[in-house]
Specification:
The protein is built from 2 helices and 7 strands; from the N terminus they run E-E-E-H-E-E-E-E-H. The protein is of the alpha+beta class. Strand 5 and strand 6 form a beta hairpin.
Length: about 140
């Protein structure tokens, strides 16, 4: 994202997680300032857009590459294609992609972010908890 882009210009968001390949322990990288998506919070008035498709404005791989450049992440990340979530925000339907950090080791969080587990989302706004719950359900099951 270049310096001139605003939250309205960025037509996608990414949820970033790490699922340990042996224990299946799932953690989420979230901003310390609030919210659960990267590289910036969802616009105000965002709601889950059930059964609505987002127009393709940015390929998921391009969004992931942009996130890695913006946050200076040198981690091996992979998009989780089975995860589909769209948000209705003022003026558009916005896709939320899911990316996972590969490997056994949890990398140190970049400045301004932290790793949490789903149970640590208690007390967060409902929408944030619901986004994390949907990722958990998609990756672990038990839905």
């Amino acid at each position: 994202m270049n310096e001139r882009q605003t939250s309205e210009d960025l037509a996608w968001r990414i949820l970033l997680c790490h699922k340990h390949p042996v224990s299946a322990r799932l953690r989420f990288l979230i901003p310390t300032e609030g919210g659960v998506v990267l590289p910036q919070a969802l616009p105000r008035l965002a709601v889950i857009a059930e059964d609505q498709e987002a127009p393709v404005q940015c390929h998921p791989a391009s969004a992931l590459r942009s996130l890695q450049e913006t946050m200076v992440l040198d981690w091996q990340l992979e998009l989780i294609g089975e995860f589909h979530l769209n948000m209705e925000v003022p003026g558009q339907i916005m896709p939320v992609y899911l990316a996972a950090v590969s490997g056994h080791e949890l990398p140190s969080p970049p400045e301004g972010t932290r790793w949490i587990e789903l149970t640590q989302s208690i007390g967060m706004p409902w929408l944030d908890r619901e986004l994390l719950r949907r990722v958990y359900e998609s990756l672990i099951g038990f839905g």
